[in-house]
Design goal:
501 residues, alpha/beta, eight-stranded parallel β-sheet, 20% helix, binds alpha-D-galactopyranose
Length: 501
Amino acid sequence: GKRVLHKIVTSDPTLNISVIDLPEGLTWNAKRRVVEGTAPEAEGDYHYNIVSTEGKEPQVLGKATLTVKKNLPLAKPMMGWISWNVVQDKISTQVVKTVADNMVKLGLRDAGYNFIIIDDLWHAPQRNSDGTPKEDPAKFPIGMGATVKYVHDQGLKFGIYSDAAPKTCAGAYGSYGYENIDAKQYAKWGVDLLKYDYCGAPGDAVSAQQRYKAMGDALKASGRDILFYMCEWGVREPWKWGSTTGATTWRATYDTRDCWQGKSGGIGVTQSIAAMKDLWAYSGVNRFNDADMMCVGIHGKGKSSSALCATGPGMTQDEYRTQFALWCMWSSPLTLSFDLTKPLSADDKAIITNADLIAIDQDAMGQQAEFVGQEGNIYYFMKDLENGDVAISATKVGSTQQQVKFDFSKFSALNIKGRYLARDCQAQKTLENEVETGFTTTVRSHATAVFRLTLKGTGIAQARTSASAQSNTLYDLSGRHANGAASHGVYIRDGKRVALP
Ligand code: GLA
């Protein structure tokens, strides 16, 4: 019953394609090359075929499966706090309790941040003699189980960290060979998520898939629902295979640093943009590309987050606002990493609790914003939202303020003839006048403008009809060919029925 959008991207963008065998409720929009509509009500797997329409007969290029399920493991990107950037080896029950208390007190839990994830170095020097994992008793004097319970009692969830090799990135014991034992113990402790790192493991993609699958299977057999969060830094294109291991989120980059621009492999905001901008076709509900921890609020005072920076460490508020806005446009998990044991400024809090932007991140359709293009040093993105609204953004990576024109003809999700209400999501104000064909706004250096556009008049249906009213292919726009297109003999070109040539 939810709106669905599946964007089809071919390596050759000029290839003529169509989609056939669609379930009831979904249609092929040839102009935008998307499958869209309303998902069936009944739970199950629905299959359809993507075909090339270059020849006389459609050639199947790929098969797609739409899974309809009431309780998906990760219907929306995860939100929370991760210990690594500011806490590192100082992680403890005490830190976890303070962070949990402050997440509640500051209203972060109510804003949606409901995970506390402890990263590396929670471990005792060795496992227990029976092989089960053991927490550092000095850091976790009440034990991991009681620490997790404290977090649960505050209405929050708990995530833990391990690695697919004998040792973790910081040198604690890893889970390789201990997948089942570890998954069972995490389940006993009440853990809700596992971040699974890849230091010390073989470089090839096949090994990575095997090692992630081993842990994914172990988590499934653990008796508890534990989200599986992969961290192999995007090196082996996990967006193409991560979901087959049981993971629902995978890191797409190396570690983010607290800077606009990183150096020597360090990921500043500009490197995050480069890494994330073309991954939109691989993201969706239950399969999110993760742009890593946000550095909003760290102000250069973190630990590893301050390394490998070409600017900073630390960012301006406009730069932090850009980081937050882009993570939301990309449907990335929103993970905070600043020191939550210290006071939070009103301005930092405003950035991370911006309800308009969080709603864009948490949109039920799970689309990662499509990279629309770059003009000079402005990057444009566009994100389809479940209620038919469209979010558009412009990021100014250059050093001066600029007048930016949002020209509707460049955003394929917009109806060029439509009148829109425009909500400025950074200022959290709706523009007084409706906008048509485009509008102009000022974007400061390193800032990001985000507007949520609502079509006036007939709403979502109007946008859809006008988008799907044209096609230059020979195939039925409805995409519904029960026995394959060739058996029908009659096709639709530009909305008119024609006989097969
Ligand atoms: C890797 C990961 C980081 C963090 C550290 C911990 O670098 O990418 O996010 O988990 O390991 O050692």
